[in-house]
Automatic annotation (TrEMBL):
Organism phylogeny: Eukaryota, Metazoa, Chordata, Craniata, Vertebrata
Coiled coil: 560-587
Protein name: Pyridoxal-dependent decarboxylase domain-containing protein 1
A Gene Ontology biological process term: carboxylic acid metabolic process
Keyword Coiled coil tagged: yes
Length: 739
């Protein structure tokens, strides 16, 4: 584009890049997030910042100073952080990075002159919680140019308190050891709402520890948003005494393209400038303009209302989860917890718990690990299902160190963007109630399914703990001396056809090839099931269908080989018949002109000889009978096609593999069969003899009775033929009595 493009063409290109290709490729039309008016104010701030930057230097300086001071003052008052300064940044980790540089400049007076030589004499140490964001420590070391040995991960509580809170006693011992070894404790990063479970560290005790060792305390987390509410828990309120904190207002208030803010307290402006927390360039101060516009648009009441609404959503979900069985929650404070983490977990009864403990003590590690993997898989499936059924809820799946895979509901991070309401939370609970019976039934029937498959000949149970469903099964192909490649292809062909046959059945089960990546080959994956599933019938159907497919495949292979050999044999026999015909006709009849004349004078009568191949018998037969009877013989009757022995009578609309319906049908069939057998036994019983009556007299009386019945029948026939109807009903009754 040497000559450039006009504005319309450029905007059309941007629109095509944003929407055009995605709408063509995806079935569902892609739509932008509904930002609302407050979002438009934030987006307008970026455009205004570009226009304001072209003002003259003096007017630009006054305007940026006013915007920066107003925004900082509002945020400090809103979040109860007195006498604080603010640094606005796009990356939420950039604020902590600048704070680390500020602390290094403060603790190492000669750092500006000597640089890393000062750090070499006394190595700095930065402490972060093991529940912090993944990769946070490594990112800080990379940006600061420090070795990873300068980063110390503090474990969480194991015995007392929350398992997501930093172990303060252990931290104290670690700091003492570092001081004794000549290191310099520099900074501690605490959490007011861990990224996973949303728990808050004991900020009060951590602040005392930092003051003891002259350390800097930095706090971050989603629970800092509750500082704007009227009621704040004491654990979160202690964050107002820390040295710095990072606020992510964009996600809390649903404001797009709004910078994060790091509030800090420091008395030396020169060190803040050296660390990059402040800038002498007026354009850098315009980062606060989008937030300045949004805060004025929402006002104090609007901001508090949004944060309060998010807290009410989490509290509503937590109250409903308490009434659900098999749901285990992990929250810090049941009265006010902005983040709700829950998981599906089936607790054992006293009897089951005793047997389970005895079994676990025998084979401890495999059972515990397998059970952990299975629950992680089921909760992964549960979280994905809930997110798909109720997308406005904003639930996601999170991996925790102790609890494993859990479902997380953090409305402070999602509700303002997605527009989550109370109705969405209620719908989420309803969907959860529908999924719990499916999870419990599948978990109970997994072991029964494994035992049935292992007992069934021809089936192989494949253990895949990452599959959320009943289990994985493979039909074993009985190879007859075939090589591995051919056997693998045949196995894939049979299991693919088996999957197709199972999906054609009228059942509520889902059969698939498994996950796209990481699944087993040539297997049938069975999804979630309900409690009325008949596992034995399911396994028997899979085995019978697999045998039927294998038999048909073998029959086709045998037929192909037989046909090939039959064709070769027919060619040899036809060639031999042609030679015999030449000998019978003679050599003269083979000459073109002479043969025609000779055939005219002396015709040669020869019966046509051909061969026909009987597919049923697999033999080669002559066609003489066909020419004699002028019709092709049918041969023997082909054998019936093998079918499954599981064809059962079912009611209209009744699904297959249902235990309750199957048992009722079996009961009715058994009752009817037994009733018919009783009737046959009654008909076959010999008549009873009276006392003193012999068998011969009984036969005589029976013969006389038959003779009388025959005479009465003859009389009735004559009356009907002569159109003589009975005069009254009495005569008819007498005739019927005689019969």
């Amino acid at each position: 584009y040497a000559s450039g493009q006009d504005m319309v063409s450029i905007l059309q290109l941007v629109q095509n890049l944003m929407h055009g290709e995605e709408e063509e490729e995806t079935s569902q039309a892609y739509r932008l997030q509904n930002v609302g008016e407050q979002g438009h104010m934030a987006l307008l701030g970026h455009s205004l910042a570009a226009y304001i930057s072209v003002l003259d230097r003096e007017r630009l300086r006054k305007l940026t100073t006013r915007i920066l001071s107003d925004t900082t003052l509002w945020l400090c008052r809103l979040f109860r952080y007195e006498n604080g300064s603010a640094y606005y940044h796009e990356d939420d980790r950039e604020g902590l990075l600048k704070i680390c540089r500020l602390v290094i400049h403060t603790r190492y007076e000669d750092y500006t002159i000597e640089g890393f030589n000062v750090l070499y004499t006394q190595q700095p140490v930065i402490y972060i919680s093991s529940a912090a964001r993944t990769g946070l420590g490594q990112a800080l070391c990379n940006q600061l140019g420090l070795p990873l040995s300068c980063m110390c991960r503090v474990p969480c509580n194991t015995m007392f308190g929350s398992q997501h809170q930093m172990d303060v006693a252990l931290l104290d011992r670690v700091i003492k050891d570092d001081v004794e070894s000549g290191k310099l404790p520099l900074l501690l990063v605490a959490n007011a709402g861990t990224p996973g479970a949303g728990h808050t560290d004991k900020l009060g005790r951590l602040k005392e520890l930092c003051e003891q060792y002259n350390m800097w305390l930095h706090v971050e987390g989603v629970n800092l948003a509750t500082l704007a509410l009227g009621y704040v828990s004491s654990s979160v309120l202690a964050a107002t005494k820390c040295d710095s904190m990072t606020l992510t207002l964009g996600s809390w208030l649903g404001l797009p393209a709004v910078p994060a803010v790091t509030l800090y307290r420091h008395e030396d402006p020169s060190l803040s400038l050296a660390a990059g927390l402040t800038s002498s360039q007026p354009v850098e101060k315009l980062r606060a303009l989008p937030l300045w516009l949004s805060l004025q648009y929402l006002g104090h009441d609007g901001i508090v209302e949004r944060i309060k609404h998010a807290s009410q959503l989490s509290q509503r979900l937590l109250e409903n989860l308490k009434n659900l069985d098999f749901i285990k929650t992990s929250v810090e404070d049941e009265l006010s917890s902005p983040v709700v983490v829950f998981k599906f977990f089936r607790e054992y009864s006293n009897r089951d718990q005793t047997s389970h403990a005895a079994q676990a003590s025998t084979i401890q590690h495999p059972i515990i690990s397998n059970e952990r993997y299975i629950y992680d898989t089921f909760n992964q499936w549960l979280g994905e299902q809930l997110a798909q059924l109720v997308p406005a809820s904003g639930v996601d799946v999170v991996e925790l160190e102790d609890e494993g895979t859990c479902v997380r509901f953090s409305p402070l991070m999602t509700s303002a963007v997605l527009g989550t309401e109370i109705q969405d939370v209620d719908q989420l609970v309803d969907c959860l109630k529908m999924k719990i019976p499916v999870l419990t039934s599948t978990l109970q029937l997994r072991e029964e399914f494994e035992q049935e498959v292992r007992r069934t000949v021809g089936l192989l149970y494949v253990e895949d703990l990452s599959w959320p469903g009943l289990g994985v099964v493979r039909y074993n192909y009985h190879s007859d001396g075939k090589n591995d490649d051919k056997q693998e292809k045949e196995l894939e062909k049979i299991n693919t056809e088996l999957l197709k046959k199972l999906n054609e059945l009228e059942s509520d089960l889902t059969f698939s090839l498994g996950p796209e990546f990481g699944g087993q080959k040539n297997c049938v994956y069975i999804g979630m099931v309900t409690e009325d599933l008949d596992v034995s019938e399911l396994v028997e159907t899979i085995a019978a269908t697999g045998r039927e497919i294998e038999e048909n495949s073998r029959l086709l292979e045998n037929m192909t080989e037989v046909v090939r050999k039959g064709i070769q044999e027919a060619q040899l026999q036809l060639q031999k018949a042609n030679e015999e015909r030449l000998l019978e006709e003679g050599l003269l009849r083979q000459i073109p002109v002479v043969g025609s004349v000779l055939n005219w004078f002396s015709p040669f009568q020869a019966s046509p000889k051909g061969r026909t191949f009987n597919l049923t018998a697999g033999s080669l037969e002559s066609t003489e009978s066909t020419y004699v009877s002028k019709a092709q013989g049918t041969g023997t009757t082909p054998p019936p096609t093998p079918t499954s022995s599981l064809a059962k009578q079912r009611l209209p609309g009744q699904k297959i593999f249902k235990r309750s319906l199957r048992s009722s049908d079996a009961f009715s069939e058994t009752s009817s069969v037994s009733h018919c057998d009783d009737l046959e036994k009654v008909d076959q019983r010999p008549p009873a003899l009276f006392p003193g009556q012999e068998q011969g007299s009984l036969e005589t009386e029976k013969a006389e009775e038959q003779k009388e019945v025959a005479q009465a029948t003859k009389t009735d026939t004559e009356d009907i033929q002569s159109d003589k109807l009975p005069r009254d009903c009495t005569k008819v009754e007498e005739q019927e009595g005689q019969r």
